[in-house]
Design brief:
The chain is α/β, with parallel strands linked by helices and 287 residues long. It has 7 helices and 17 strands. The strands form 4 sheets. The protein has an 8-stranded mixed sheet. The longest helix is centred in the middle third of the chain and has 14 residues, at 100-113.
Length: 287
């Protein structure tokens, strides 16, 4: 499958090429590196040079070059959710627009379930998936190892008008939390994970996807409820095929339902060109 995020009111991929992407977030245009861009730009260089902020990659230090008056933070809306955008020192801006199709998929399942749904979001970052599920009516547990990311996620929930909804914010190592949930006997109807290729927990725990991924997935399956609704795995910088993630969900077919996998992409404005932006595998219960 190829899932496509098309241009939105507050977000557009204006152009891409030569290892860069040019995006509009609300009123501001940003230029950032992207390793997936192995083709040439379509727009003239003067349009690229007119971006409000350009992330410049250096040999020793990388930073944003602010060409116009860009605020420290500003708000945009995507998929009916509100997000606070900011220029991080790692080129990220606090949101991954390619995840929109996953958010809509989960929201549809939660609404159609017509019963209380409890969701666990591991490596939850700034809360896009958590807030999407929360808005659809689910109870959510959001886990991330970064206090800064959790604070941004809380802000996104607040500006989306969802801060009073049932969500718990957990600062923890993802696998350590899952192990404790097994011991406590807690269960979830939906599980989301977006593991990095490498990372550290809040206490310095080392995450290497080639070593840590399989044990986490195996333990996460142990906390699925007796009537689970979905299981979603995302990947970006790991270098794996979506088929590899799909194989890890194959045993869930004994419950019923179906598995799909593929690429997440972003469509350029005024173009049919798609920017590859990650992979996914997801299981949904059809019962």
């Amino acid at each position: 499958m190829i899932e496509i995020t098309k241009p939105q009111k507050d977000y557009e991929l204006l152009d891409s090429g030569d290892g860069l992407k040019l995006e509009r977030y609300g009123k501001f245009v940003l230029s950032r590196p992207d390793p997936q861009v192995l083709w040439k730009k379509k727009l003239p260089e003067e349009i690229w040079n007119d971006a409000d902020a350009i992330f410049v990659k250096g040999t020793e230090k990388s930073s944003w070059k602010i060409k116009k008056e860009v605020p420290e933070k500003w708000e945009i809306e995507i998929g009916g959710l509100n997000f606070e955008i900011y220029l991080s020192k790692f080129k990220h801006v606090g949101i991954f627009p390619e995840q929109l199709s996953n958010w809509l998929w989960m929201q549809d399942l939660i609404k159609k379930a017509d019963r209380p749904i409890k969701v666990l979001n591991l490596f939850g970052y700034t809360g896009g998936a958590s807030i999407a599920c929360l808005k659809a009516g689910a109870e959510v547990v959001h886990v991330d190892a970064s206090k800064t990311s959790i604070e941004h996620a809380k802000m996104n929930a607040e500006i989306s008008g969802l801060s009073e909804k049932p969500i718990r914010w957990i600062l923890d190592d993802a696998h350590d939390f899952v192990k404790r949930e097994i011991r406590r006997g807690n269960k979830y109807d939906g599980i989301i994970m977006d593991p990095p290729a490498f990372g550290r927990g809040p206490k310095g725990e080392i995450w290497k996807i080639e070593e840590s991924f399989l044990p986490l997935v195996d333990d996460a399956k142990k906390i699925l409820s007796d009537n689970p609704l979905f299981f979603l795995i995302n990947g970006y910088a790991s270098g794996y095929s979506p088929i590899a993630y799909e194989e890890n969900l194959s045993e869930l077919k004994k419950i019923g339902g179906e598995i799909s996998s593929g690429e997440l992409t972003i469509e350029e404005k005024d173009s049919s060109r798609l920017l590859p932006a990650g992979i996914f595998a997801r299981w949904e219960n059809k019962l």
